[in-house]
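Lab manual, section 2.4: Encoding a predicted structure.

Procedure: take the sequence of the chain (325 residues), apply the prediction step described in section 2.3, and record the output as structure tokens. A sample record is shown.
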Amino acid sequence: MRILSGMQPTGLLHLGNYEGALRNWVELQKDNEMFCCIVDWHALTTQYEDPSHIADNARQVAIDYLAAGLDPEGCAIFLQSHVKEHAELFLLLSMITPQGWLERVPTYKDKKDQLDSEDSIPFGLLGYPVLMSADILLYKADSVPVGKDQLPHIELARETVRRFNHLYREVFPEPHGLLREGVEVLPGLDGRKMSKSYGNTILMSDGPDIIRQKVRTMFTDPEKIRMGDPGHPEICPVYAYQRVYQPEKAEEIASGCRAGTLGCVADKKDLAEAIIRALAPVHERRRDLEARPEYVEEILRAGAARARGVAEATMAEVRDAMGLR
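Recorded output:
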């Protein structure tokens, strides 16, 4: 399959990004043609007032991609803004996308409710799914690895394909969302969704001491106040991490928690060391990449060149179909 995947450079990537997406991408690259984009234009939908950090963040995300194990020989790693055809296809698709389709997207509704007034809603926020569709269709991707919350965007991309192919001629295949089954969703340190905006993350780049400090602050079962109290591991964020980082010990940990023989302090110390062990290869690769910024830049240049080769061919077909040559 040809697969398109991407993340916004709104900051350093966290364990939710790593476990929920990047580890899956590393496996997918072995048997598929991968285009791994850093969608810096998408970041402007929320950071347009101060975009000064986007470029630096994009380079850090590239390092996280590589440190996680993405192979630049096997997949194209590049910045969205380095392939201008993304913007051209976004413009053309926006001409045929009904406004009603965009207003029904659940993520738009959620973000709209968080804003003060209709006047504060930028067009980029409304048009976000069209740009995402352009990202996917530009490479004629068969599949896109996404979480369940992104499936409405994939469905909109499929509707856009059907509309374009009907209006002009068949150019695009319909993409499919690629859900990773059985993936544990890691909560934030406070039990909410892990998010940079909440400040409740463990970053992929966090060193051992920072990991230990952050894990010490993690919320636990509110009813397990002291050693000896029976706990409920199914509602405890610490146990959610234990299932990911020590699955072989998960049942033993759950039994000790329920019986009150395992205290939260000891449980957290054990978890912190497990996370540190799991991230050791990632940290080693990251240190090497940080010491070679010119190597990372060359990977981004080569990835953009490879992506442009496909993008230019697609846009030639699009212009021809629309009579714009």
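Check your result against the sample. The mean pLDDT is 93.
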